[in-house]
Each structure stands twice: as C-alpha cells, then as structure tokens.
Amino acid sequence: MTQKQRMxxxxxxxxxxxxxxxxxxxxxxxxxxxxxxxADDPAxxxxxxxxxxxxxxxxxxxxxxxxxxxxxxIHLGARVFLNFGCVILDVVRVEICAGTQxxxxxxxxxxxxxxxxxxxxxxxxxxxxxCIGANVWIGGGALILPGVTIGDDAIIGAGSVVTRxxxxxxxxxxxxxxxxxR
Length: 182
Hints:
Layout (H helix, E strand, L loop, with lengths): L2 H6 L4 E2 L3 H18 L6 H11 L2 E2 L4 E2 L3 E3 L5 E3 L4 E2 L3 E4 L4 E3 L4 E2 L4 E3 L1 E2 L4 H5 L2 E4 L2 E3 L4 E2 L4 E2 L4 E2 L4 E2 L4 E2 L8 E3 L4 E2 L3
Parallel strand pairs: 2-5, 3-6, 4-7, 5-8, 6-9, 7-10, 8-13, 9-14, 10-15, 13-16, 14-17, 15-18, 17-19
Antiparallel strand pairs: 1-12, 11-12, 19-20
C-alpha cells in the first residue's frame, strides 16, 4: 500500500510522503482562495466548498477563515454551518450530518500519533474517523478528538474537550466532556 492508502485506511503512515505532500499543497492553495472569499457572493463560496471538500450539501455555510489538512475527506450534509475559525484535520473521513451547527474556533481532529516514542520519532502517525450526527450543536472553542462519534441532536458545550463518543440527544460539557442535565 502507498503511504496515502495507509493514511486513508487509518494505519500508520509517513506524512511527508510526496503524494500526501502534493495533496496538502493543493489544499493549501484552495484554502488561500477560500479564505479570501469572505466578502464574495454566498453562491461563489459554496462553489469553492464543492471544489475543495469531499461532499457539501445544499445550504451549507462555512465562514472563512477555515483550515483543513486535505479537504477531500470532509463530508458535510445539507444546512451544516461552521462559524469563523474552524479547523478540521482530515487525514481520514470526517462526516458532519445535516443541520449541524458548529461555533467559532471549533477543532475537529482525526490526526493521532503513536503512544510509543520510537514510532513517533520515525515520523509515523495515523488517523481515526469522526462522525457528527444530524442537528448537533457544538459550542465555540470545543475540541473533538480522534475517533469520536457524536449522535444526532447532541449538544457539546463551549470549550469542551470531547474524548469519547456522545450519545444521541445527550448534552456534554467540560474537559473531558461529561454528560450534564438539560
């Protein structure tokens, strides 16, 4: 398998592989154009999203600035909203389902690193996919860590660090995020 195939499969890979580096450079050039589009017509920004991301549903809005690793592994359903300053590290699939609203400065991080220092020293890393259900609300500044699934209709409190799965309809907050009563 190539390093890119290993990356997409969630296996250990070397990030500075030429094929992966080329994909990263393409994404960087796209982000420059997208992040310069804040004052542009919303239809033009949506067309740019369709160009740079894996899937973009109707009515989806991503307010620049926006940052990602590759873009092609990001799948946004209809009417998804990402506020200013969101970061998605998409070394593997990130799925955000219809109607989800994400506050400013949220980070969605699929990238992970081996716990063994010798493997890290070799430049190896891996990713674990993230799935965020429909009609989820994520407050500003939250961190969603690798491998997390968030169920439909859940609420993530501002500034929370989500380290494990969140059940559908649950409200979580804190560091690490824990269930709270609504």
